[in-house]
């Protein structure tokens, strides 16, 4: 049987990590993999997480299953973090929530849920989008189509083209995938006015918004980063949301996420919860517990909650500062190309807007690792390498 299998190409981003580890250049810089790194280049465990884990080590008294949807307390707290504690859809009991194995697990669960509700549904995905969005949606049985999202000319959201495509080419029942904040890979986010215009169009055409919010808190703040998502939830009868604790809690390997479904009525929400639980049962049966318990402990304790928010603020400020410093370093190297857009974008990612050939030179000649699209992870920069990176970019330009 297995002799019929064909080799699968290595994931380009994960393959970069392999090449980076093998590189003996002491000046090598990894700007590829999308994880937050501190000034020492380390993805450290957050203090709030360590304190929560210490408490769990003493207090946790069972490893029994928590159920298909995970911890109810975790689900309730994450719904409040994502939507706001006083959001109408929560008080109206129109939401169904499940704890999932990371944001990717949430994306897959929701994609399969959509395929149960309407088999073979068409999901419209922005161009560009996170590399794993399309494989996850396809593997769940959904049909993929794309809409324009990022303008290489203006380095902002190509909103007119996006709206024109969604207005003319979508049909009732189609799904529109949107990034909640800190767009990966471009760093270009919708404004609140654009969120409202998108919500109006979704209502007009009878579409389903599918929001992936993986970086809440790393743009402008926890509430600020969720403002567009909350506006959308205020405006539409139905919506699905995938959230992740990988970035804002640093729980990458603990695989902690949340799938949220907003239904038109509380009665439909009960049915949606049952269907989502059925999807989960047929996949991984029960979610992993440890990361969710750590998050639950932090959010339920005012002191730990404040420690976590203070740490997140430091991370957010560092990313913003690195954006400014990179732009200034490029100017100092005499680069004439305008990189000021990097300062205006949000989150960990931006495109350098250089050619694949120039990217190849950065990798092969300077040991500065990034993907061929020229997307960089700003959090991979620090005070010891930012000038070197600027010099390398200047050299290939």
List the helices and strands and how they pair.
Blueprint: H1 12-22, E1 29-30, H2 47-59, H3 72-83, H4 88-91, E2 95-100, H5 102-117, E3 122-127, H6 133-139, E4 143-148, E5 150-151, E6 156-157, H7 159-169, E7 175-179, H8 192-205, E8 208-213, H9 222-225, H10 227-235, E9 239-244, E10 257-262, H11 266-283, H12 290-300, H13 302-332, H14 341-344, E11 349-351, H15 356-366, E12 368-369, E13 375-377, H16 386-396
Parallel strand pairs: 1-12, 3-4, 3-7, 7-8, 8-9
Antiparallel strand pairs: 2-10, 5-6, 9-10, 11-13
Helix pairs in contact: 2-12, 2-13, 3-12, 5-6, 5-11, 7-8, 8-10, 12-13, 13-16, 15-16
What does this structure look like?
By secondary structure, the protein is α/β, with parallel strands linked by helices. The protein has helices at 12-22, 47-59, 72-83, 88-91, 102-117, 133-139, 159-169, 192-205, 222-225, 227-235, 266-283, 290-300, 302-332, 341-344, 356-366, 386-396, and strands at 29-30, 95-100, 122-127, 143-148, 150-151, 156-157, 175-179, 208-213, 239-244, 257-262, 349-351, 368-369, 375-377. The strands form four sheets. The chain has a seven-stranded mixed beta sheet with strand order 2-10-9-8-7-3-4, sandwiched between helices. Strands 1-12 form a two-stranded parallel sheet. The longest helix is centred in the last third of the chain and has 31 residues, at 302-332. It is globular, with a radius of gyration of 21 Å.
